[in-house]
Amino acid sequence: MNANTILEPTLRDILEVIKPLREDFVVRSEIIEELKYIVSSVESFRGATVEPFGSFVSNLFTRWGDLDISVMFLNGSYISSAGKKRKQNLLVELLKALRQRGGWRRLQFVPHARVPILKFESRQSISCDISIDNLQGQMKSKFLFWINQIDGRFRDMVLLVKEWAKAHKINDPKCGTFNSYSLTLLVIFHFQTCVPAILPPLREIYPRNVADDLIGERIVADESIKEICNANISKYMLGKPRATNRSSLSELFISFLAKFSDIRSKAADLGICTFTGEWQDIRSTMRWLPKTYAIFIEDPFEQPENTARAVRAANLDRISEAFQMTYHSLIMANQIRSSLIGVLVRPQIFSFIAAGVPVGNPGYGPPHYQSIQQIGWPMHSPPQVQRQIHNSRQERHANYLTTRKPENFRKNSRSQVESMRLEKHPNYFTKQRQETLPDNSINQRTQSYPNTSRRPKPAVHHNAQDQHVWRPKLDGKRTEGYTDEFQ
Question: Which residues have C-beta within 8 Å of that of residue 268, sequence separation ≥ 6?
Fold first, then answer.
């Protein structure tokens, strides 16, 4: 039997477990609202705003993903940033406020990271990182969200790759391996360099270094960047005819593993540049010199920063071995499903899939959010969002056009793409949006997808006595000086 015949549905089963449900969006929204209240109670934070970024905003988070928060201080309407010492002092004050408020666990102040952060865990067992004036992180998150419009397979690949990397312990910057942002860029690079290409070089979406353009009035800078990206994404999707990549998710995953199996040997001479969509010779790329890193994955939005600067040379062999071993395991004939799952996910996730336990509330959120399908971040008006919540799964937003019926995209969806705008990301469900959801929306969604009850239950966060129990999020203790995404 062809290995892909088993691998494709296996990958879909994994996605069913790790993709966030509506309750996962809602619980993070509740955390943000509570943090807004706490921040507003601190005198030195008067006028500051609390804004999420990272995988939550880019819609690339799993059920157990962290929540990144930036507290923004506006100099009037102009972009500004506090100095590092000022950021450290502000985070110390916020730390005191969180302790006084209570309900937050594992509070840890990391003052000497590249971006000072405050780490903690919410009462819902969500790990949170707070930074100050992280506008660049917010913009990177929006870019990744916009890239989802081009092809929906991108999001699925990112979620699968991050879970696979955690299973092989190579998604842990504090231990000298990849952070999640670097893994996301590897997926982008793979989609740029596969044949036919799925994604363009990122310079075709935005031709400049984004970090250099975050100046002046914030609303003007945001709108200018958004308008350029909107025009270029539409141009790419509606431009001259090009070959369509119809590879399945399993084929893309296997070719991803093959492409980076020799990453150890390539890393000595070549860097990964998603801005150009090419491997680039390190010695001839002046902005990367002098070479001081084990591997170079350039940040396309903050050039020439290296997103993989935490990767240690001693770990490159182990990273390459993870790619090679998984690749050979997946292409073997006569595969059985359990063996495939075993090399793709952590043991705890494996047990959820194997158990086939009905999905319920994983220990947080209102009880009426149980057993519902995912929702997405469509770039549409609120009424359209409500209709999609009634009738569609999470992946069925703008990129549904390209992922499901690529051969009909140009003929049938031109007017939809032309009218599509890169709206400012909704970031999270506000209370107002939650209140607009009809009471019967959950029942309608559950009836539309009767197999929901078969979906494995991810994890329970607390027992009856409110004691903390294991939930699959981080492998090991978080260590000072290391951050994950966009920090």
Answer: none
Structure tokens at 398: 């703008």
Q: Which of 260, 153, 146, 141 is nearest to 198 (CA)?
A: 153
**Can you tell me the distance from the alpha carbon of 478 to that of 194, in angstroms, rounded to the nearest whole number?**
35
**Cβ distance 129 to 55 under 8 Å?**
no
Amino acid present at 432: Q
- 3-class DSSP state for residue 373? coil
Instruction: Give the model confidence (pLDDT) of 32-56 as tens digits.
Output: 999 999 999 998 898 889 999 999 9
For strands 127-132 and 67-72, give the pairing.
parallel
3-class secondary structure, 306:
strand
Scanning 194-274, the segments in alpha helix (DSSP H) are: 218-238, 249-259, 263-267
Burial class, 476, CB count within 10 angstroms (exposed 0-12 / middle 13-18 / buried 19+): exposed
Q: What is the DSSP string of 295-333?
A: S-BB-TTSTT-BTTTT--GGGHHHHHHHHHHHHHHHH-S
Q: Are 199 and 245 in contact (CB under 8 A)?
A: no
**100 Cβ contact list (under 8 Å, min separation 6):** none
Query: What's the order of all strands across the beta sheet hosting 67-72?
Result: 49-53, 67-72, 127-132, 117-121, 105-110
Tell whether pTM > 0.90. no
Provide the strand spans (E) within 354-465.
none
How far apart, in whole angstroms, are the C-alpha atoms of residue 369 and residue 31?
Answer: 16
pLDDT, tens digit (0-9, with 9 covering 90-100), for 455-473: 444 444 443 344 343 344 4
| Integer angstrom CA distances of residue 255 from 191, 313, 460 | 10, 24, 35
Asked if 132 and 82 count as a contact pair (C-beta separation under 8 A), the reply is yes
Q: Do you know the residue count of the chain?
A: 487
Q: Concatenated DSSP letters for 63-130? A: TT--EEEEEE--BTTB-----HHHHHHHHHHHHHHHHHH---EEEEEETTSSS-EEEEE-TTS-EEEE
Nearest to 401 by CA among 424, 418, 425, 382: 418
Question: Which residues are paired to 67 by β-bridges?
Answer: 128
